[in-house]
TrEMBL record:
Cross-referenced InterPro entries: Ribosomal_eL30-like_sf (IPR029064), Ribosomal_eL8/eL30/eS12/Gad45 (IPR004038)
Name this protein carries in UniProt: Ribosomal L7Ae/L30e/S12e/Gadd45 family protein
Domain of life: Bacteria
Pfam families: Ribosomal_L7Ae
Organism for this UniProt entry: Candidatus Avoscillospira stercoripullorum
Domain Ribosomal protein eL8/eL30/eS12/Gadd45: start-end pairs: 6-75
Length: 80
């Protein structure tokens, strides 16, 4: 499932993800399990309220790599 982040349209990072979620553009959200819950909990709440699928990724480094960036990422979203 992470493979689709390499080529698909996506947003990376909490701020961009939350903006896109509220705009109704996100079909699936990926959250790193080792990210700060103060950052990820509001995203979880948004996903539940909007009915967006949520996928857990073990580490920020793994999510960052899947997104094609050289640093860790707490969150990413697959765009419609």
């Amino acid at each position: 499932m992470l493979d689709e982040l390499k080529t698909a349209r996506k947003v990376v990072g909490i701020k961009q993800l939350r903006k896109s979620l509220k705009g109704g553009q996100v079909v699936r959200v990926y959250l790193a399990e080792d990210a700060d819950p103060r950052l990820t909990d509001p995203v979880r709440t948004d996903c539940a309220a909007l009915g967006v699928a949520l996928v857990s990724v073990p580490t920020m480094a793994e999510l960052g790599k899947a997104c094609g960036i050289s640093v860790g990422a707490a969150a990413a979203g697959l765009l419609a």
